[in-house]
Automatic annotation (TrEMBL):
It comes from the Bacteria. SUPFAM superfamilies: Winged helix' DNA-binding domain. One of its GO terms (molecular function) is DNA binding. Keywords: DNA-binding, Transcription, Transcription regulation. It comes from Mycobacterium triplex. This is Transcriptional regulator. Pfam families: HxlR. The keyword Transcription applies.
């Protein structure tokens, strides 16, 4: 792929575009907590522990990207506030978050093991993010993959 890769530019890379939105530590931790059920600013702040202004910026980024929806609520006798709910676009990130968690569980966990297990609601067994060929169902590793230019590939100048 290396020779072929050099013939195309990476200015419209999907990985780069995804990282532009979610590729920052605090953003991924906001996503983790949203998947765990956090909705309100104070919940995120207490569970993540970043500065309030950083959290506020991350919530704005995720809301503007359509990953979180901002929904008004009002406690009795209080002013209107907003909570943050995962959109369909945000829910689609669970596979990436679980894949990152699995990698961390395998390579970075304490000797005691992973701090969290994600279980299938219906049967109670652990879930896993895996690569699978949609044609024949084969489970794949990095060694089984062969990148090729897609329909959005743009030739490099002079290629």
């Amino acid at each position: 792929m290396s020779d072929l890769r050099d013939r195309y530019v990476a200015d419209n890379c999907s990985i780069k575009r995804a990282l532009d939105v979610v590729g920052e530590k605090w953003t991924l931790l906001v996503m983790r907590e949203a998947f765990y059920g956090a909705r309100r600013f104070d919940q995120f702040h207490a569970r993540i522990g970043c500065a309030r202004n950083v959290l506020s910026e991350r919530l704005v980024t995720l809301t503007e990207a359509g990953i979180l929806g901002r929904v008004p609520y009002r406690e009795p006798g209080q002013r209107e506030r907003h909570e943050y709910r995962l959109t369909d676009k945000g829910l689609d990130l669970i596979t990436a978050v679980i894949a990152l968690m699995q990698w961390g569980d395998r390579w970075q966990a304490d000797a005691d093991g992973p701090p969290v297990r994600i279980l299938h609601e219906d049967c109670g067994h652990p879930v896993e993010a895996i690569l699978r060929c949609p044609h024949d169902g084969t489970v794949l590793t990095a060694r089984d993959l062969h990148p090729v230019p897609g329909p959005g590939a743009r030739p490099a100048p002079g290629a």
